[in-house]
């Protein structure tokens, strides 16, 4: 299977992408002539997905969902930090305009960004982004330094990067305002396996600000 996927990747061309779009539209309309009429009418996805930019981890395909079902933000190594205006803008729109009821931070085992953060090689401007993952290592070094197996340590940092992302979301005024105003919102941490195709729930779901450290709790705005 891997060799077939590799061969297929080499065959992809600019023109082929455009033809693929036409083929998809034709097949979709043949199955449902009103599909694009409904899709263009607007979006009301119940889920915000914060995932890795890795081309092997597309949100809709691995969850068997359709266009319009998931609002997606992706970046290198699915990092969630309060200094990233891109992710904060996506979060604000998803929570306050689309009113999503679930936010999923989804990492994946074998993540190149996390692997790079474990090393000391310079890559360029991305080094500044990977610093966020190194900071996660610093927060959990007592646990990580005790793991002698390199792969297991790598996998655990992938998980901890997701868990910190979940916690970082709960610290934002966007999320705290939503909860204080009594609106349903669950934040979840998942990890996807490229080897099996299965998603692992890290069981760090948070649905209120009850467990947030007092130093991060804000005087929130009520509707």
Topology:
Elements: H1 2-11, H2 14-31, H3 35-39, E1 47-52, H4 59-63, E2 70-75, H5 85-96, E3 102-108, H6 112-118, H7 126-139, H8 141-144, H9 150-170, H10 173-180, E4 186-192, E5 199-201
Parallel strand pairs: 1-2, 1-3, 3-4
Antiparallel strand pairs: 4-5
Describe this structure in words.
With 223 residues, this protein is of the alpha/beta class. Helix 6 crosses helix 7. It contains 10 helices and 5 strands; from the N terminus they run H-H-H-E-H-E-H-E-H-H-H-H-H-E-E. The N terminus is likely disordered. A 5-stranded mixed β-sheet has the order 2-1-3-4-5. The longest helix is centred in the last third of the chain and has 21 residues. It has 2 domains: 42 residues, no CATH class; 173 residues, Carbonic anhydrase (Beta-carbonic Anhydrase, Chain A, 3-Layer(aba) Sandwich), CATH 3.40.1050.
Strand order, largest beta sheet:
2-1-3-4-5
Oligomer: single chain
In N-to-C order, the SSE pattern is: HHHEHEHEHHHHHEE
Categorize the overall geometry.
Answer: globular
Low confidence ranges: 1-6
> Could you tell me how far the N terminus lies from the C terminus, measured between alpha carbons in angstroms?
53 Å
User: How many separate helices?
Assistant: 10
Number of domains: 2
| Mean of all residue-level pLDDT scores | 94
Helix content: 40-55%
Q: What is the highest CATH level, the class of the largest domain?
A: Alpha Beta
Rg = 19 Å
> Any idea what the CATH architecture of the largest domain is?
3-Layer(aba) Sandwich
Q: Helix/strand/pairing class, anyone?
A: alpha/beta
């Amino acid at each position: 299977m891997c060799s077939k996927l590799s061969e297929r990747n080499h065959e992809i061309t600019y023109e082929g992408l455009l033809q693929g779009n036409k083929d998809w539209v034709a097949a979709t309309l043949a199955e449902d002539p009103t599909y694009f009429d409904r899709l263009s009418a607007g979006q009301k996805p119940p889920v915000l997905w914060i995932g890795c930019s890795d081309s092997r981890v597309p949100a809709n395909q691995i969850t068997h969902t359709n266009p319009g079902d998931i609002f997606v933000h992706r970046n290198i190594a699915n990092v969630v930090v309060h200094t990233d205006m891109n992710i904060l803008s996506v979060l604000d729109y998803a929570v306050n305009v689309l009113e999503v009821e679930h936010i999923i931070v989804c990492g994946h085992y074998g993540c190149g960004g996390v692997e790079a953060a474990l090393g000391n090689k310079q890559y360029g401007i991305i080094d500044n982004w990977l610093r966020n993952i190194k900071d996660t290592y610093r927060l959990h070094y007592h646990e990580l330094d005790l793991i002698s197996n390199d792969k297991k340590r790598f996998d655990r940092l992938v998980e901890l990067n997701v868990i910190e992302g979940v916690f970082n979301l709960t610290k934002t005024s966007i999320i705290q305002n939503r909860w204080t105003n009594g609106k349903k919102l669950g934040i979840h941490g998942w990890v996807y396996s490229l080897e099996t195709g299965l998603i692992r729930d890290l069981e760090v779901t948070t649905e209120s600000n009850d467990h947030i450290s007092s130093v991060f709790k804000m005087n929130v705005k009520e509707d």
